[in-house]
């Protein structure tokens, strides 16, 4: 049984999708050990509490990055997490945080990286005029939206889209992509070659 730690700051739909996948058996042999929000008012935190999950608020406001990260890492270690899923966590992790959990931290980003890293990726893609965007689940390294890619899913940009309808289409892909990526990582049948995650065929 693997223990997941979820970090979030807001709405929490990716967290809910992960929790639903565990409940439905789409992610097997895993449970959510702790959900941590850096904001007391995050709807995702409320959803976690409603589900009876261990839910912590560790406020980041007014704290130096490393100080906050130390509190979060301590909580994750206390709950003995095997894998950390950033799910709309609006904080950059310090290099020290990343080193505590090598290849054990995943992030989801609403674009086909390396296009449109950073904030408001769907709006960036829409304004740029791309015809295809999507989402990326990747390992977290020291750089923003940067580590080896685990899963990407494409979404078309339609002529009658606006940034909201595009974001909604991408979000659907996100929910499926996170479940796939967690399964790949928990199964562990892959190697990282350069930046490439290459799946190993079962013996
Ligand atoms: C998602 O679009 C995710 O890709 C990005 O932040 C958003 C979080 O949404 N990192 P939610 O809180 O999971 O609903």
Written account of the structure:
The chain is α/β, with parallel strands linked by helices. It has two domains: 1-101, Formyl transferase, N-terminal domain (Rossmann fold, 3-Layer(aba) Sandwich); 108-203, Rossmann fold (3-Layer(aba) Sandwich). Helices cover 35% and strands 25% of the residues. It contains six helices and nine strands, in the order βαβαβαβαβαββαββ. It has a seven-stranded mixed β-sheet with strand order 3-2-1-4-5-6-7, sandwiched between helices. A two-stranded antiparallel ribbon has the order 8-9. Helix 1 (13-23) links the parallel strand 1 (2-8) and strand 2 (30-37). The longest helix has 25 residues, at 163-187. It is globular and about 50 Å long. The two termini are 23 Å apart. The model has no long low-confidence stretch (mean pLDDT 97). Bound molecules: 5-O-phosphono-beta-D-ribofuranosylamine.
How many helices? The count is 6
* Main sheet properties: 7 strands, mixed
The radius of gyration computed from the alpha-carbon positions, rounded to a whole number of angstroms, is: 16 Å
* CATH structural architecture of the largest domain: 3-Layer(aba) Sandwich
Number of strands: 9
CATH superfamily of the largest domain: Formyl transferase, N-terminal domain
Enter the CATH topology name of the largest domain: Rossmann fold
* Overall form: globular
Structural class: alpha/beta
Order of helices and strands: EHEHEHEHEHEEHEE
Biggest sheet strand line-up: 3-2-1-4-5-6-7
Bound molecules: 5-O-phosphono-beta-D-ribofuranosylamine
Q: First CA to last CA: what distance?
A: 23 Å
User: How large is the share of residues in beta strands?
Assistant: 25-35%
Mean pLDDT level: 97
Report the helical percentage.
25-40%
CATH class of the largest domain: Alpha Beta
Number of domains: 2
Identify low-pLDDT runs.
none
């Amino acid at each position: 049984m693997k223990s997941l730690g979820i970090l979030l700051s807001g709405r929490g739909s990716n967290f809910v999708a992960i929790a639903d996948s565990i409940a439905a058996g789409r992610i097997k042999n895993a449970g959510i050990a702790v959900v941590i929000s850096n904001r007391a008012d995050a709807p995702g935190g409320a959803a976690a509490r409603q589900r009876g999950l261990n839910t912590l608020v560790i406020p980041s406001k007014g704290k130096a990055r490393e100080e906050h990260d130390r509190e979060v890492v301590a909580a994750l270690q206390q709950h003995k997490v095997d894998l950390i899923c950033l799910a709309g966590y609006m904080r950059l992790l310090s290099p020290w945080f990343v080193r505590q959990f090598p290849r054990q931290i995943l992030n989801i980003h609403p674009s086909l990286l390396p296009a449109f890293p950073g904030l408001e990726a769907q709006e960036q893609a829409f304004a740029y005029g791309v015809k295809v965007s999507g989402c990326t689940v990747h390992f977290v390294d020291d750089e923003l939206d940067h580590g080896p890619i685990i899963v990407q899913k494409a979404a078309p940009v339609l002529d009658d889209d606006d940034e909201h309808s595009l974001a909604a289409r991408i979000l659907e892909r996100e929910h499926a992509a996170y479940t796939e990526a967690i399964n790949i990582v928990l199964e562990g049948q892959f190697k990282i070659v350069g930046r490439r995650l290459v799946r190993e065929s079962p013996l």
